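Hello,

Our lab assistant flagged a job as stuck in the queue for most of the afternoon. It eventually completed. Since we weren't sure the result was trustworthy after the delay, we are filing this so someone can double-check. Below is the sequence as submitted and the structure that was eventually returned. Let us know if re-running is recommended.
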Amino acid sequence: MKTLLSTVLFLMITAATFAVNFEGKWVGKVKGQDGNDMELTFVFKMDGEKLTGVINSPNGDMPVSNVKVVDKVLTFDISFGDMTMKHVCTMKDDDTISAKVEGSPMGDSEMILKRQK
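-- returned structure --
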């Protein structure tokens, strides 16, 4: 019984050590409606065991919803007017996030998010 408990505790500690950390500020650029690059700041934080967030843009702040984290993949939605934009973000080994956006007014897009210190 002690061996089983020790093994379970070891696995829990190991999983927590290697958990992907999306928390923090991330900055990326995407093409705006005028064709120029627009800077976006993604701010994610842990609220208990739940990840929450907001995207700061020149058009205002947009809270994220439907947040899910599985391994190195973070998915969420943002609503802007009557549109819902779906985001699929993958943590890369170089501590950047590759983000794919579907449903934006400019069409589907991709961007790289860099962690801000």
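-- support follow-up --
The delay was a queue issue, not a problem with the job. The result is valid. The first strand starts at residue 24 and ends at 31. Residues 21-116 form a domain with the Lipocalin fold (CATH 2.40.128.120).
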